[in-house]
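Researcher: I'd like a structural prediction for the single chain below. Treat it as a standalone chain; there are no partners to consider.
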Amino acid sequence: MEPKTISFIRRGELVCLTNVPPERTLLELLREDLALPGTKEGCGEGDCGACTVVLGEARAGQIEYKAINSCIRLAHSVDGLALWTVEDLAAEDGTQHPAQEAMVQCHGSQCGFCTPGFVMSLFGMYQNHVCRGKAITRELAQEELSGNLCRCTGYRPILDAAQQMASLPAVKVDERALARQLAQIAPAASASSVYLSPTGLPELLAARAAHPAAQIVAGCTDAGLWVTKMHIQFGQVLDVTRVQELRQIELYPHHIAIGAAVTLTEAFDALVAQRPQLKTFANRFAGLPVRNSGTLGGNVANGSPIGDSMPLLIALGANVVLMSQRGHREMPLEQLYTGYRKNVMAADEVLAWIKVPRPREGEFLRVYKISKRFDDDISAVCLAINLRLHGNTVTRVDIGAGGVAATPVRAANTEAFLFNKPWTQHTARAAAASLRAEFKPISDMRASAAYRSEVLGNLTQRFWLESQGVQHINLEAVIPDLIRDPVDCGSGPQWQAREGKA
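Model: Treating it as a single chain, here is the predicted structure.
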């Protein structure tokens, strides 16, 4: 097979590389092939953010900027994009970029190992918010830096730096010039390459039929771990993330159709737009760099029993659409799985769409993620419940659960028990017992089987309380009386109370 050339824009110049193995990560490319050691390797699994870089892509008439983890991103996936590393931010005369200068002024660097990753996340925030005339609030900074870990616990000055950037002299990317450069290196699919990256759905289906043994990747936030932790070498890769049809979110009267190549960030934005109560859950789905790379289709097709999107999608009544050159078929999402990380897809099929019903009148939806850390952690248990009542009688309930079986599952027995029952505290307690009895979870590094069973029932009780209007029974509902808003980084930390609080 002919080698595929990787072309991308860095520092306004074209970079072209050949003979790059299909499983080589972007981090390895930067540090070992391009001698750019500023990007650090921390965890090697997209968890700590030390390896964060920013990618730029021309879409809908403007440049989209995404902070991503280079340690689990395949190098070939940056073909046709713009790339920034921490070495690229300072001006030629040495003037620091606002993302760097704010970290200096606010004393945001301690041991310094995580600093390049934080700076790159700040650069992404600067481009997406400050350069678009949007304010960076404390809450926004906390959300978008959740994928970066500081081992010295220096978060407060780093959050100060995020808000300080807008007050510094502006630095702008010449987006018109960059868009022209990107247009000139738009990647083309190469059927002879070891890294197949089709740009259209017919090309994808043809490639899948011709290369059924190729490893499909759709963001690589999980498959990347097979490379970094298990040292797997891919003979051939089929990357679906450039297929334009599958990068779309389509709105219909009764459902939305989310393409399998839509990033988790964009997919959750679409779900939250229709169901705002999902905002906190969406923010807790890994860190922003993972959501910027990972796709909803990849998460669903991967089928991990602790993947957080599937319990929610099951509770929403989502269907999946599988496609091949032979045609397509549609099924409820939970019917996709046959066992641990196994599914019903034929060798020539790909997951193409996730169809999610629009909110139904009177639905009461909650999704709970239980993990050891609040941010950027994998669930021990994930439970989603979607309830509809007529008067006080249960007319429909959909329950999805993760972390309690070999696959993401629908709690069919508990749903059947609840149907046509009065929604009372007694019913909720009985449903909790039913849910505990329905699954036989295992014990592992995240939780014991007994803990998982107990939590399933407890979350059902919590759902009952919330359905009755009880508030402030979860961590995210607790708002401190004092919001720490920096007044002036340069003169040391000073704090002011939020208006209306004492």
